[in-house]
Write a structure and sequence with these properties.
The structure holds two protein chains of two kinds. By secondary structure, chain A is an alpha/beta fold. Chain A has a domain at 3-94 and 175-263: P-loop containing nucleotide triphosphate hydrolases (Rossmann fold). Chain A is built from 13 helices and twelve strands. Chain B is α/β, with parallel strands linked by helices. Chain B has two domains: 2-90 and 170-317, Rossmann fold (3-Layer(aba) Sandwich), CATH 3.40.50.300; 98-165, no CATH class. Chain B has eleven helices and twelve strands. Chain B has helices at 44-52, 98-101, 108-115, 122-135, 152-164, 182-199, 210-216, 234-239, 244-251, 290-294, 313-317, and strands spanning 2-13, 16-28, 33-37, 59-71, 77-79, 91-94, 170-174, 202-206, 219-224, 227-233, 300-303, 306-308. In chain B, the strands form two sheets. An eight-stranded mixed sheet of chain B has the order 6-7-8-3-9-10-12-11, with helices on both faces. In chain B, strands 2-1-4-5 form a four-stranded antiparallel sheet. In chain B, helix 5 (152-164) runs parallel beside helix 6. Chain B is globular. The chains are: A alpha/beta, B alpha/beta. At the A-B interface, helix 8, helix 9, helix 10 and helix 11 of A face helix 6, helix 7 and helix 9 of B.
Chain lengths: 321, 318
């Protein structure tokens, strides 16, 4: 049965910076509309450069930031925006985060297992013995043994192991969706793939969907089923990951893919238009990419492009698709 | 040619001494872009600091020396002892973070004149600087700005301009584009490549991103747990890696358009605090034997120009 995995209705988040004189308005999320349905759990990639609104999006879903307007629905539950929201407990069973730096996610004064057990007791309302069982199960699912974790502090783990433990923590409440914000960027190259493969296994075995936030397109290609490309708070292209990344339609997606340092194809030596007015781009009335776009015309300066739906299920926000 | 002979560099900490570069013997040929790759904590940055001669505590050079392939005024070859006298003129350094390297409260032009050791008038120097930054795709008036007025990519270009202004023989760059977006990164790396072609000098580039090395490095140096395990042409290292660690690392890289499953190397890198014997990769290597666990393999030239530290290269190639 098709379910709504992630839906946003005109999601906006405005930050205001500076004082009275030099006031800047940053539309970190600018009319974000997504409607991702699937009959099985999926990994949704949220890709963009710094300042694209990726992390703001994650914070809105996790209730760390209130959206300026609009709503977010995860598995038919309203998680952000105005309306009839679930209780805090229900919310913890809907979305759970994994952070970039696992060493910062755990307290260095507490053993990892006691932290996990307390989470299980508080969030799942379990007794201590039940909590130990729940932690044992969660650790097994991420490829760690309870005996190996017991009594150890965070600094006694490698980055990869500790990130696994923080994935286990996120799984204890059995959430519908895990929000992973750059989860492997701090992990050594030789251990990175084991964490990424873990997400693929958990998707199958735990039936958990992921919102995978990254700037690394090669990892997004490997792990994601669906992908959304953000730029200055707006969606540019959104659709099945393999299709978008092998045959990009939006000029910005093309530019990104031409710039990724791949290990199987050398760069061309084309001149690249750089942006030097970053904060102003957030307020462009038309397409936010027009000042750098090789095919921009007058219409791009004044009119925001409407979504164009393609046959392969992707949506592209460009006047010239 | 930069000659590294038997380099041992260690950090002194409250817990004791730890060797972050442990017995590196290598000759780096001139006029190439040389990429250094390896995991965090394998000694990449320490090696760069040793080559730069930046031996401030807690880092110290315990053993060995670096010879840079050029001579001082008396005709003796410059070594790690006196390389500090040639900073910015013959050897220079591009740091990773432009925001923490530039002074936020003074204009860029002031930092240029403070930083550069010059023997002509200030106005004349600034005219030259303006002409030079223009060559690096920056507006000449960028040097009149404060650092915060420039974008991250422009600031990084300013650091490149400062480091290359005197056309040094050796340019060291430690993760010069890690904090930048991919589009900006591409622009800066291609600019470095163009500068290297113009200046015909040696660039030693540290990056954890193998894609960056593939794109611009001509030679590659792979480090593992404070040792050099492989050195050779980038193309050879990617297409026919000799060391099992290099091969596992390259095979684990995801690639757009390639749907094969990637695996990590099992185990984890050793802690440098432990008493390490034999090959440091042996505990993770599926081909390791008793000899690997007890006898340390030396870096040897397996093919012309391609060096590896492994007892069983033939076996691992099969």
């Amino acid at each position: 049965m098709m379910e709504t995995i992630l839906k946003t209705d005109s999601l906006n988040k405005v930050y205001r910076l500076g004082g009275l004189i030099h006031r800047a308005r940053i539309d970190a999320l600018d009319d974000v509309n997504l409607d991702i349905k699937s009959d099985q759990p999926i990994i949704i990639g949220l890709v963009g450069e710094s300042g694209s609104g990726k992390t703001t999006f994650a914070k809105v879903i996790l209730h760390l930031v209130e959206p300026t307007s609009g709503r977010v629905i995860v598995y038919d539950r309203l998680v952000a925006g105005k309306g009839d929201k679930p209780t805090g407990q229900e919310l913890l069973h809907t979305v759970q985060p994994i952070f970039q730096d696992p060493y910062a996610a755990f307290s260095s004064y507490q053993t990892v297992n006691s932290y996990l057990e307390r989470t299980a007791m508080r969030v799942n309302q379990l007794s201590r013995t039940e909590a130990v069982d729940a932690v044992e199960e969660a650790l097994t699912s991420v490829g760690l043994k309870y005996e190996d974790v017991r009594g150890k502090y965070p600094n006694q783990f490698s980055g990869g192991e500790l990130q696994r433990a923080s994935v286990a923590r996120a799984l204890i409440p059995r959430p519908k969706m895990v929000i992973a914000d750059e989860p492997v960027s701090m992990i050594d190259a030789s251990l990175r793939m084991s964490v990424i493969n873990l997400f693929l296994t958990l998707k199958q075995e735990y039936k958990t969907s992921f919102l995978y936030i990254t700037h690394d397109l090669t990892i997004a290609y490997y792990v994601c089923d669906y992908i959304t490309i953000l730029y200055r708070g707006a969606i540019f292209e959104s659709g099945p990951a393999k299709a978008v990344l092998t045959d990009p339609q939006h000029p910005y997606t093309k530019l990104l893919l031409e710039s990724v340092p791949r290990t199987n194809r050398k760069w061309d030596h084309k001149q690249i238009a750089l942006s030097d007015i970053e904060t102003k781009e957030y307020q462009f009335e038309g397409c936010k990419f027009y000042n750098r776009c090789p095919i921009a015309a007058d219409i791009c300066v004044h009119d925001r492009p409407a979504p164009v739906k393609k046959e392969d299920g992707r949506v592209v926000y460009c006047h010239f698709v | 040619m930069i000659k590294l002979s038997n380099l041992v560099a260690s950090y002194t900490t409250a817990r004791g001494q730890v060797n972050a570069v442990d017995g590196v013997n290598l000759q780096i040929p001139s006029e190439y872009i040389v990429g250094i790759a390896g995991e965090s904590g394998c000694g990449k940055t320490t090696l760069i600091r040793v080559i730069y001669g930046d031996m401030s505590p807690p880092l110290s050079l315990e053993k060995g020396e670096v010879r840079y392939g050029f001579c001082d005024a008396n005709g003796t070859e410059v070594t790690s002892d006196n390389i500090g006298d040639y900073w910015s003129k013959r050897i220079s350094y591009i740091p990773q973070s432009s925001m923490s390297s530039l002074n936020p409260v003074t204009r860029i032009r002031k930092q240029f004149t403070d930083f550069l050791d010059y023997d002509k008038g200030r106005a004349e120097l600034l005219d030259e600087v303006r002409a030079y930054v223009k060559n690096l795709d920056l507006p000449p008036e960028a040097i009149d700005a404060y650092p915060h007025e420039l974008s991250g990519g422009m600031r990084q270009r300013i650091l490149v301009a400062m480091a290359t202004f005197f056309q040094p023989d050796i340019l060291l760059a430690d993760e010069p584009t890690t904090a930048l977006d991919v589009v900006v990164q591409k622009g800066i790396l291609l600019m470095l490549k163009r500068l290297q072609e113009q200046m015909q000098n040696t660039i030693i580039l540290v990056s954890h991103d193998m894609g960056v090395h593939y794109q611009i490095a001509q030679k590659m140096l792979i480090m593992y747990a404070a040792k050099v395990v492989e050195f050779g042409d980038t193309r050879e290292v990617f297409e026919a890696p000799l060391h099992p660690y290099t091969r596992f690392m390259i095979e684990s890289l995801p690639t757009i358009g390639d749907d094969r499953v990637r695996q990590s190397v099992r185990g984890r890198p050793p802690s440098l605090w432990e008493d390490l014997k034999g090959c440091r990769f042996a505990p993770r290597c599926p081909m390791a034997t008793e000899r690997c666990r007890s006898e340390e393999p030396a870096l040897r030239e397996y093919r012309p120009g391609q060096f590896v530290a492994c007892h069983y290269v033939e076996r691992s190639l099969q």
